[in-house]
Amino acid sequence: MEGKEISQAVIGRLPRYFRYLGELKDEGIERISSQELSDIMKVTASQIRQDFNNFGGFGQQGYGYKVEYLYEEIGKILGLDKKHNLIIVGAGNLGQALANYMNFERRGFLFKGIFDNNPALHGKKIRDMEVKPMEELQEFVRENDIDIAVLTIPKTSAVAVAEQLVKDGIKGFWNFAHVDLNVPKRIQVENVHLSDSLMKLTYNINRYEEENNVH
Amino acid sequence: MEGKEISQAVIGRLPRYFRYLGELKDEGIERISSQELSDIMKVTASQIRQDFNNFGGFGQQGYGYKVEYLYEEIGKILGLDKKHNLIIVGAGNLGQALANYMNFERRGFLFKGIFDNNPALHGKKIRDMEVKPMEELQEFVRENDIDIAVLTIPKTSAVAVAEQLVKDGIKGFWNFAHVDLNVPKRIQVENVHLSDSLMKLTYNINRYEEENNVH
DNA sequence: TAGATTGTTAATCGATTAACAATC
DNA sequence: TAGATTGTTAATCGATTAACAATC
After folding, report:
1. Structural domains in chain A, sorted by start
2. Cα Rg of chain A, angstroms
3. What is the SS3 assignment for B103?
4. Residue range B89-115: average pLDDT?
5. Residue B114, by phi and psi: left (phi above 0), alpha (psi -120 to 50) or beta?
6. What angle do CA B115, B117, B122 make, to 5 degrees?
7. Are B40 and B65 in contact (CB under 8 A)?
8. Would you say the C-beta of A35 is within 7 Å of strand C?
9. Exposed, middle or buried: residue A152 (CB in 10 Å: 0-12, 13-18, 19+)?
10. Please, which residues have CB within 8 angstroms of residue B138's CB and are 6 or more apart in sequence?
11. Which residues sit opposite A125 in a β-bridge?
12. Rounded CA gap, A17 and A75, in Å?
């Protein structure tokens, strides 16, 4: 049914390649070898070639890689050429910030709506979009063919809301709630656990200090 | 000088353990075996025991682990018992949202200031803290013993600002800017590249569809 | 003591790096 | 053609899982 499965380790590196190649392209650089890219990105040339080869040969022996071509191919792999309808569930600080801050449209996402159960927010305009009550969520998702839900609601409600959204046909979650969602494997979940990330930072700061300072 | 280095793979799992143990503790559960925790968290019991043993034995043979003790020990490992002075650099949507949304104080972080170069924001109150101009950043960091800078500024200025902050004595960055910072290895950096995360999500959604739908 | 479960060693698996033949 | 650099196989490294002896 499918080709060989690509590991998430590789997928996780693609956006960074994409970013560097975009910059190289903007600088007008036309070709690059895995060794040159290795020097810039501080990863091994071997890893770069292995990673790209998961998707077939993008390069030319003796020449290297065409920057623009490679950039576009990685964009396609990441699905940036496809449109995805997206909603934000939870119009608190974080939900509003993401609506305003993320350049959704530039990456193929169509921002279709934002929902909250706080009546004080209903009707408030967030990026030309009025906050809708949660009561309208289910019908909206079903009728507007929504693919992705950004969850910026408290963890107490996130699991139940996610389960309902799965029934309504959501394909993936960008989950900022501090819980693990309980959804079928066919549903994709990308977690952004901000406080976890901050804890990793303090661990590393403290450990560095313990190893090097007063000990 | 130090003990054996703990891999970042292990560190990355600690916050999740910490979260689950906190919940178990709140439910009044006193002891848990690696097997029970394995069932709840969907990771192998073997991995749980290996992970904990990186830091010495927290359990008791034949009994399991004391939930509260384990919870506290992991908290200490993550450095949550230590205070860290923190500032936010960039008071746009994301910077403001993080100031309001993150419960910094609850995890040992002292929110000391927020900076922006937009004069329209200067003096605006964000969580009882007035936005200060970037001109005051350097002196502020030096005089207030700031450990962590949250970077929510555009990528065009992030690298230079980070380099300056390193000179001013910053120990770690929580970096939301979409660039790789160029800082000495002794400085800890935790990147949160939101758009990268979203790209991984679309990759996985698209790939699932290609494998299972029309193909 | 017998049973349970950790701590830890050994085996396996997967990911990264090195090497080099293929080829532009 | 000679030189460069990929694509790809082989070697290494590290992380995960399995197994079991130690011990509570």
Report:
1. 8-77 (1.10.10.10), 84-195 (3.40.50.720)
2. 21
3. coil
4. 96
5. beta
6. 65
7. no
8. no
9. buried
10. B164, B168
11. A130
12. 10
B141-150 pLDDT, tens digit each: 999 999 999 9
Question: What does DSSP assign to residue A133?
Answer: E
Written as one letter, the residue type at A33 is: S
Provide the residue type at B121 as one letter: L
Strands (DSSP E) found in B2-147:
31-32, 59-60, 64-66, 84-89, 109-116, 125-126, 129-133
Radius of gyration of chain B (CA): 21
**Other residues' Cβ atoms within 10 Å of the Cβ of residue B15:** 21
Strand order in the sheet with A31-32: A31-32, A64-66, A59-60
**Contact check, Cβ <8 Å, B203/A14:** yes
Name the pTM for this structure: 0.95
Q: A65: Cβ under 7 Å from strand D?
A: yes
CA–CA dist B44, B41 (Å, integer): 9
Half-sphere exposure of B43 (CA within 13 A, CB side): 16
3-state secondary structure of B142: helix
The more confidently predicted of residues A154 and A208 is A154
Q: How far apart are CA A141 and CA A121, in angstroms?
A: 20
Q: Which residue is nearest to nucleotide D3 (CA to C1')?
A: A62
Q: Give the nearest partner residue to B208 out of A174, A186, A212, using CB atoms.
A: A186
Q: pLDDT tens for residues B36-60?
A: 999 999 999 999 999 999 998 899 9
DSSP string, A86-103: EEEE--SHHHHHHHHHS-
> What CA–CA distance (Å, rounded) separates A16 from A14?
5
Residue A55 one-letter amino acid: F
Handedness of CA A87, A90, A91, A94 (dihedral sign): negative
Greatest alpha-carbon span in chain B: 64
